[in-house]
Amino acid sequence: MGPHPAVAAIRLAVRRVLHDILNEHTSPSGNSSDSPHERPPSPLVLVACSGGADSMALASALAFEAPKLGIRAGGVTVDHGLQPGSDLRAEEVALRLRQLGLDPVESVAVTVGREGGPEAAARDARYAALDAAAARHGATAVLLGHTRDDQAETVLLGLARGSGIRSLSGMAAVSGGPGAARRYRRPFLQLDRQTARKACMVQALPVWDDPHNADPAYTRSRLRHEGLPALEKALGKGVVEALARTAQLSRDDADALDAWASQAATAVRDAAGLLECAKLYALPPAVRRRVLRRAAIEAGAPAGSLFARHIEEVDRLITGWRGQGAINLPGKVVAQRQGGRLVIRQG
């Protein structure tokens, strides 16, 4: 008799990702040795674990699957220091990871700032700690326990921000960290939260439910406990799956538009490298705005502070030209139209 369907599902999801990692690690274009007689060292894969059902299920599946493929498996838990006793909780999670057979395992304490709100600040601190841990241990990849439900929430939050198709594309199955473009892997994006919780239950894995996840002070928590249930009540049970599918379709579209804009960014410049307004005007708006955003970032505007409204103002220098003056952008970058050319530079 095989494992419970929920356990089989999480193990299959992790096995697929581990095979991808192994193929990349041993491919000729990877970091393996040029000598056919020298085998590359076994890759190390870390799991980021909060002690919640999603990440505990992920840790258990990694501990089960990695040894069968000759992959070393470790774990990291991050203590955000936001609740009394969080240090003891983190040590408890680290102990559970060791009991699963993961090695190395460490608990990392971080200081959460205030920039961008509490949720964003905690996320920034967490990813910085995970990047540092991956670098410290020489890890090939870090697995994250985001589920299809998390993806649906991310799409709705992006929709509420009104910031375009890229924000509707949710979380990528593979994404990067500093100097490691494919560091983060999310094996559970096609699985629902209930499957992960069920897998923990049938394996008798203790699970910690973070009180922040039920705290109405947090936007995502309100969406999870009030917004999505209301949508499901009004539209039916397939909402989460449909939103996750929207994320994938949006990601494909956004990737295609980014590639088009990358090619167009060269074609719209004159011999001196200046942007030609007439050629910019001829581009589809979605491509043109991407070219403008890229040019602003190259001139020194911080990507995280450059919003859609900034790009729309610059775009009006092309599409609604009435002799208006220079546009001030974040990072002391200035955009202005000069004799049929768009000049974006540090002011």
UniProtKB/TrEMBL annotation:
Residues engaged in binding ATP: 50-55
Keyword Aminoacyl-tRNA synthetase in annotation: no
Record field: catalytic activity: cytidine(34) in tRNA(Ile2) + L-lysine + ATP = lysidine(34) in tRNA(Ile2) + AMP + diphosphate + H(+)
E.C. code: 6.3.4.19
tRNA(Ile)-lysidine synthase substrate-binding domain sequence ranges: 275-342
Signal sequence residues: none
Function of the molecule: Ligates lysine onto the cytidine present at position 34 of the AUA codon-specific tRNA(Ile) that contains the anticodon CAU, in an ATP-dependent manner. Cytidine is converted to lysidine, thus changing the amino acid specificity of the tRNA from methionine to isoleucine.
GO MF annotation, one: ATP binding
Pfam family, one: TilS
Record field: compositional bias (Polar residues): 24-34
Domain of life according to the entry: Bacteria
Region (Disordered): 24-43
Keyword Nucleotide-binding set for record: yes
Name under which the protein is recorded: tRNA(Ile)-lysidine synthase
BP term (GO), one: tRNA modification
Keywords for this protein: ATP-binding, Cytoplasm, Ligase, Nucleotide-binding, tRNA processing
The tRNA(Ile)-lysidine/2-thiocytidine synthase N-terminal domain, residue ranges: 45-226
InterPro entries: Rossmann-like_a/b/a_fold (IPR014729), TilS/TtcA_N (IPR011063), tRNA_Ile_lys_synt (IPR012094), tRNA_Ile_lys_synt_N (IPR012795), tRNA_Ile_lys_synt_subst-bd (IPR015262)
Family: Belongs to the tRNA(Ile)-lysidine synthase family.
Subcellular location(s) of the protein: Cytoplasm
Domains: entry comment: The N-terminal region contains the highly conserved SGGXDS motif, predicted to be a P-loop motif involved in ATP binding.
